[in-house]
Amino acid sequence: MRCFLLCLALAAAGVKAQEKAEPISVHVKEVHREQDDGTEKGNWLHITAIVESKTIIYSLKCDQFYSSETQTYAVQCFDLSAGRDYSARKFQSAIAFWPEGTKSSPGHLFAAYNITSEKEK
User: What distance in Å separates the CA atoms of residue 34 and residue 55, rounded to the nearest whole number?
Assistant: First the structure.
C-alpha cells in the first residue's frame, strides 16, 4: 500500500512507475514559495525552484497540501534550500529528491518536482 501511494505521488508529478530514474546531483539556485488562501480543508503551497546540474539548468514546480483536518501534510514536497547541493533521481519529466526507499503512509504522499523547463548551460 505504501509503495502504491509513493508511486501514485510520483505519477501525479509526471513520473511513470515503470520509468527508470537516473541519479543526478544538483545545486539549488533559487526557491520560491507561494501559499494559496486557505479553506476549512487546508491550504496549498506552490513551490518553484531553479536547480542546475553540471550541464543543465532546470525549472521545477511542486505543490504540497497541508490538511487542517489531520494537522499534517497530505501531499508533501521535499524541502529545498537555495545555495545547497542535493542528490536526487531524475525521471523524464520530474526530479525526486526523497531518498530511494522513502515510503509514504496512508493519507500522506511524497511528491516529486515536475520539470517545467530545462536548458543547456
Answer: 28
- 88: which 3 cell numbers? 536526487
Query: Domain extents for the chain?
Result: 2-120
Q: What is the pTM of this model?
A: 0.82
Cα–Cα–Cα angle for 29, 60, 65, rounded to 5 degrees: 115
Which candidate, 75, 56, 59, places its Cα nearest to that of 67?
Answer: 75
Q: Where are the beta strands (DSSP E) in the chain?
A: 22-35, 42-52, 56-67, 72-77, 85-90, 94-96, 109-111, 113-120
Q: How many CB atoms lie within 10 A of CB 54?
A: 9
Distance (Å, whole) CA 44 – CA 54: 32
Average pLDDT, the chain: 88
